[in-house]
Write a structure and sequence with these properties.
Blueprint: E1 4-9, H1 13-25, E2 29-35, H2 45-53, E3 57-61, H3 67-80, E4 85-90, H4 95-104, E5 108-111, H5 116-133, E6 141-147, H6 154-168, E7 172-176, H7 183-187, H8 195-200, H9 207-213, E8 215-216, E9 222-224, H10 237-247, E10 253-259, H11 264-272, E11 275-280, H12 284-298, E12 306-313, H13 321-328, E13 331-337, H14 340-349, H15 360-373
Parallel strand pairs: 1-2, 1-3, 3-4, 4-5, 6-10, 6-11, 7-9, 7-10, 11-12, 12-13
Antiparallel strand pairs: 8-9
Helix pairs in contact: 3-4, 5-11, 6-15, 10-11
């Protein structure tokens, strides 16, 4: 059963039909009512009807020719139904309408023509905001690691961060989302299943079955291995949203190795993450790429959760932390020292450097884990879900 209930208000019949199809296709929401107009006063029967249905989201289509009535409708709905999130759909070529819609109370402004991915990303942002505002039941936290450019070391960072978190807190899983997975090699384990097997069985997946698809590392962390072969047909972002819905309610921490994957799946996972680590090095191409990755991920509202990790770090005269932050428009959270021979040897042996407790590089991963877990009370966040259990 879908978590979010949606009401659609659009003057055009075709627009209402298309919007309902897009909403229902996300599989995380369902349309419960639609109408060809918006309420015009607090005594309007349409407003009473909408209020009785208690929708999670109200979507209004704003036609360029008659935007005024829709904007007034947004303001009225926002005042009368403050607990309902309002999405406006309209043209991006009319900035004044966008500003007016947001000032009137719209939480999202979706460009016309909308797509299922646009809707899904907006729904994820809403549920992410809801989970942050509710503070009763514990849920897992997600840390996604992505390369600024190929070879920057995202997998190395993800694997060693996982082991540091497991050592300090326990109940940690690492998920390999790379197009071709390497985390199993780093950990020297031979998984029987991959993420592809899990996605094929989402319809019957529960906590016990999920653990069955995992492989356990010697320090206790669980791995959901990545693809053994380049994937020809990618599962939809909806599938990944369902998977992570289960993961955050089963593990204390979930580390995602996105590697160099930059697509709607990475955006969906990043939108749900508590922090997204962009791994770069202190050279011009890497920092330039990091700034572009930052821009790409920021487009869906994750900018405040983006963090920079400098891998293979060594001091450069005249270039400091503030310069790296300025070049990437991202806050620096960690520096992994340049010990490439040791890291390369650890990967070949399948013994991650985080297990070398007394080395400088091992301490840097412990410090990174502490920086992520000390920034907030991770034990009091309410359990959230894009999907109710039927």
């Amino acid at each position: 059963m879908a978590e979010l209930s949606v009401i659609i208000l659009a003057q055009d019949n075709e627009s209402r039909t298309v919007l309902q199809m897009l909403v229902d296709n996300t599989a995380v929401a369902r349309t419960i009512y639609s109408a060809p107009s918006v309420p015009v006063a607090s005594t309007d029967p349409l407003l009473r009807r909408i209020s009785d249905l208690k929708p999670d989201v109200i979507i209004l289509d704003i036609p360029a020719s008659s935007a005024t009535s829709m904007l007034r409708g947004i303001e009225l709905l926002h005042t009368e139904l403050p607990d309902s999130a309002i999405f406006a759909v309209g043209e991006m070529t009319q900035p004044q309408i966008i500003v007016s819609a947001m000032r009137a109370g719209a939480r999202e402004y979706i460009e016309r023509p909308p797509t299922t991915s646009h809707m899904l990303e907006a729904f994820v942002r809403i549920t992410t905001a809801q989970r942050k505002s509710q503070r009763n039941t514990a849920r897992g936290r997600i840390f996604t690691v992505v390369n600024a450019k190929g070879g920057s070391g995202a997998t190395t960072v993800a694997v060693n961060l996982t082991l540091a978190l497991q050592q300090a807190h326990g109940n940690v899983a690492i998920i390999d989302l790379a197009p071709l997975g390497h985390t199993a090699l780093h950990l020297n384990v031979k998984p029987h299943f991959t993420i592809g097997d899990v996605l094929k069985n989402l319809h019957r997946l529960d906590g016990s079955l999920l653990e069955g698809y995992m492989i356990r590392h010697s320090n206790g962390a669980h791995l959901l291995a990545g693809a053994n072969d380049p994937v020809q047909v990618q599962p939809s972002p909806v599938d990944f949203a369902k998977l992570f819905d289960l993961l955050v309610n089963h593990y204390r921490y979930v580390v995602v190795d996105a590697s160099s994957r930059l697509d709607p799946v990475t955006r969906i996972v990043s939108d749900s993450s508590d922090a997204v680590l962009i791994v770069a090095q202190t050279d011009v191409p890497s920092l330039w790429s990091a700034s572009r990755v930052q821009q790409y991920l920021s487009e869906t509202g994750t900018r405040d959760r983006l963090r920079l990790v400098l891998n293979r770090y060594k001091k450069i005269p005249g270039f400091g932390d503030s310069d790296a932050e300025a070049a990437t428009s991202t806050k620096l959270i960690g520096k992994i020292p340049n010990q490439y021979p040791a890291v390369s040897a650890s990967i070949d042996r399948g013994i991650p450097v985080a297990q070398q407790n007394h080395s400088e590089i091992a301490r840097s991963f412990v410090s990174l884990a502490s920086s992520l877990t000390d920034s907030g009370d991770e034990n009091k966040t309410r359990s959230w879900s894009l999907f109710k259990t039927a």
